[in-house]
């Protein structure tokens, strides 16, 4: 079973979806003139796949920071950090699988390229243990992978182009799936664009861009005129993750909005006589002073991790609640975790997204501040998804055995350990996938293979096809099922 991302409707009213797992392997190129709906398309893709895969967005205009509230992305303002801090943050993003929006708003073009190059290079150079799948969305990609030198320093252009090339050419093996959007195919480096296997082509008017778009879509040159006539928000789609033949898709609605919107006509003010307007504009003023510039705050300490930033995102201070004993706090945490796991909407969401919901539920239960930080919450959430809601000392051997596993695999391992300890039937692939936060049965099977390769479990299948799983270190085994 694959994860299908609903993008919109065909002219016949049929839903058009993108296979998320296929997209991770084959990358995506989006092209369209300004106003064609590229940013709307990217926002639809990000919203519909949120919670299914890590998302990393390089945002030159700061339009996607509005994802931070509803979907739990961490918004990083590049202007508040130096290049080394951005690179360190990128490494931690891969380690902790945090979904982030890197806003480059407020930086000059050369500084944007330099920052994006450092950020992408750090993502690419992450240790092999951190090669988790992630969508890397780069809006206005022609700024970071230009065909010519432009007005930026040559070393900056080369660094940015090299980082973009690595993302699109070699990123797949490292779990990085490049999704690039551009206004002009002619301004985007060909070796970057050529690595995408999926295409969504929107309205464009220049002949050279229409010709390149038609070539990528496998259309004849005489058919390229159709690209000029596409309505706003409609794209021609092709690729293994979408369709084997070009088809038209009208992108569906989104839940969030960009901070900057398309200009709308508003009524002009009441007409003023020219002589009055002249006096109004050039009237001398004795009390006019240049407002003082606010002191620039120092950047965040380099030792502060992204997870710490996520954990310290607090709502405005409210009156303190009566103190509760440690046992009362532990009982409240267990009750809240049990309620969250029972909530079907939380099954596919990451710990970073659910942490704020956890703190709100605890406050409603009279516990504030939350006794768990984000890493501790992620661990307890994994235990809760396996049906373990309290910190029972009897489970410490199982936790010790799973110490070398990635954090997101703790839940599935404990699910198996719980069934093995109680001699219950082996959990189904569906149950294992649910505890892993996915709907893909193939991913659940690959997860079991990985855990078995670490010598933590042994899978047996008898002649009747029933499967049992043993945990040799603990001496536990599930019943065949």
TrEMBL record:
What InterPro entries does the annotation carry?
AAA+_ATPase, ATPase_Atu1862_pred, HerA-like, HerA_central, P-loop_NTPase
SMART domains per the UniProt record, alphabetical: AAA
A family per Pfam? DUF87
All copies of the AAA+ ATPase domain together span 24-191
**Superkingdom of the organism of origin:** Bacteria
Which PANTHER family does this chain map to? HELICASE MJ1565-RELATED
Q: What is this protein called?
A: AAA+ ATPase domain-containing protein
Species per Swiss-Prot/TrEMBL record? Sphingomonas kaistensis
Its ancestry begins with: Bacteria, Pseudomonadati, Pseudomonadota, Alphaproteobacteria, Sphingomonadales
